Amino acid sequence: MERIPVLRMGSLLLITIQVDMHDKLALQLQDDVTERISEWGSTGVLIDISSLEIVDSFIGRMLANIAAMSRVLGAETVVVGMQPAVAITLVELGMSLPGVRTALSVEAGMELLYGALKTGTENERLEA
Amino acid sequence: MDNLAEIISQNETRLRSEWIRTMSSAVERADLISKAELDEQCASILQAIAEGVKAGGAGSISGAGWTTARELLSSISASRARQGFSPSDVATFVLSLKQPLFIVIRENLGREQDRLFETIWSATKLLDSLALFTTDAYIATREELIVRQQQELLELSTPVVKLWDGILALPIIGTLDSARTQVVMESLLQTVVATNSKFAIIDITGVPTVDTLVAQHLLKTITAARLMGAECIISGVRPQIAQTIVHLGINLEDVVTKAKLADAFALALQRSGRAVVRTTAGPTSALAGLLKKQED
């Protein structure tokens, strides 16, 4: 069965969506991400959707869901490289993805995640 | 019907001079068109009308016999629309032919009452429809002008400028409606991708009023930019607009707003880890240095 690969990069998970998403694939991805986070103890999830050209409300909700689930499991999510047309579509659908962090490129997303992790560990250290 | 054509072609010179005289007593637009040009136009129209009556009859001007007259009239009214004539000026241009034409018809058919009436009736019908046609052509040209100006305005008024590496500015001039928001949103998002910009400053100094609809359009644009990973700052909020926003209860709390474009730019620079530093001493400190030297 077709699957979207979930790569491990240190404490981060890297997901690149390069095919047209359909509902089954989205549900499978949701399962995989939650599974991997708890298995590997990841603290950040980076989803690259720069090749995604078509979205519907289901895919939009799936992105929001993955972010919310990851947060429950203790990982930050960043969605990077959204195309203008995709952004306009999501806004017109009324989905502003309030809980999801965004960045322009994978590089910027990584920076954001590492920044978030760093302040997180510093806070923990300060608390300790 | 043949009478009318005959009468017109026989008395062409007289009709023309009378026509121009009536026209200039009704509307004097010597500033917009020269006498010689007017004379030439009148002559060619009279000729075309005579031909039209001969070929197509005076009943209707939509036939093939009237093609020359129609083309001539529409080109004249188009050029007049551009020259700045008013609609009544353009209509009067054709309608002022009535009096001279009626006088000529009466002189020719004065003794035969029935034919006189018939000819005058067909002549007045003909001239009315010609005047209506002229007005229609005039309005069509005006409409074209308006549509073109609207398009030009739309293209002109949505530039996205790069202020700094990673900082864009979008000065919006004029009212934001749905169609314009779409254009603004698209051009902003395209430029964000193309220049890989983290900050976008939307300057609304040129937006005359901000109502709930405009605010909603703005928020949509900002949300779309945020989804792509860019941060938006609204600048150019005038005191009056700030009051309106609060009175209308528009929630702009999740959006950074600044009074001046300069403030927004400074904030964007600061957030991207940059600062503007003066490299030479300012005028006051230079003066102070000079004074100190003199004291020494």
List the helices and strands and how they pair.
The complex is a heterodimer of chains A (128) and B (296).
Chain A: E1 6-9, E2 12-16, H1 23-40, E3 44-48, H2 57-72, E4 76-80, H3 84-92, E5 101-103, H4 106-127
Parallel strand pairs in A: 2-3, 3-4, 4-5
Antiparallel strand pairs in A: 1-2
Helix pairs in contact in A: 1-2
Chain B: H1 2-10, H2 12-26, H3 35-56, H4 67-83, H5 87-95, H6 98-109, H7 113-156, E1 161-164, E2 167-173, H8 178-195, E3 199-206, H9 212-228, E4 231-235, H10 239-248, E5 256-257, H11 261-271, H12 283-295
Parallel strand pairs in B: 2-3, 3-4, 4-5
Antiparallel strand pairs in B: 1-2
Helix pairs in contact in B: 1-3, 2-3, 2-6, 3-4, 4-7, 5-7, 6-7, 8-9
Count of beta strands of chain B? 5
- How many helices of chain B? The count is 12
Quaternary structure type: heterodimer
Counting helices, strands and paired strands, the structural category of chain B is: alpha/beta
Low-confidence stretches of chain A: none
Known CATH architecture of the largest domain in chain B? Orthogonal Bundle
Supply Rg of chain A: 14 Å
N-C termini distance of chain B: 109 Å
Query: What is the mean predicted local confidence, pLDDT of chain A?
Result: 87
The CATH superfamily of chain A is identified as STAS domain
Q: Keywords for this structure?
A:
heterodimer, A: 128 residues, alpha/beta, Transcription Regulator spoIIAA, five-stranded mixed beta sheet, 5 strands, 51% helix, 17% strand, globular, B: 296 residues, Globin-like
Describe this structure in words.
The complex is a heterodimer of chains A (128) and B (296). Chain A is of the alpha/beta class. Chain A has a single domain (6-127), classed as Transcription Regulator spoIIAA (2-Layer Sandwich), CATH 3.30.750. Chain A has 4 helices and 5 strands, in the order ββαβαβαβα. Chain A has helices at 23-40, 57-72, 84-92, 106-127, and strands at 6-9, 12-16, 44-48, 76-80, 101-103. Chain A has a 5-stranded mixed beta sheet with strand order 1-2-3-4-5, sandwiched between helices. In chain A, β4, α3 (84-92) and β5 form a beta-alpha-beta unit. In chain A, α1 (23-40) packs parallel to α2 (57-72). Chain A is globular, with a radius of gyration of 14 Å. The mean pLDDT of chain A is 87. Chain B has 296 residues and is α/β, with parallel strands linked by helices. Chain B folds into 2 domains: 2-145, Globins (Globin-like), CATH 1.10.490.10; 161-271, Transcription Regulator spoIIAA (2-Layer Sandwich), CATH 3.30.750. Chain B has 12 helices and 5 strands. Chain B has helices at residues 2-10, 12-26, 35-56, 67-83, 87-95, 98-109, 113-156, 178-195, 212-228, 239-248, 261-271, 283-295; strands spanning 161-164, 167-173, 199-206, 231-235, 256-257. Chain B has a 5-stranded mixed beta sheet with strand order 1-2-3-4-5, sandwiched between helices. In chain B, β2 (167-173), α8 and β3 (199-206) form a beta-alpha-beta unit. Chain B is elongated, with a radius of gyration of 33 Å. The mean pLDDT of chain B is 84. The interface between A and B is medium-sized, with 20 and 18 residues.
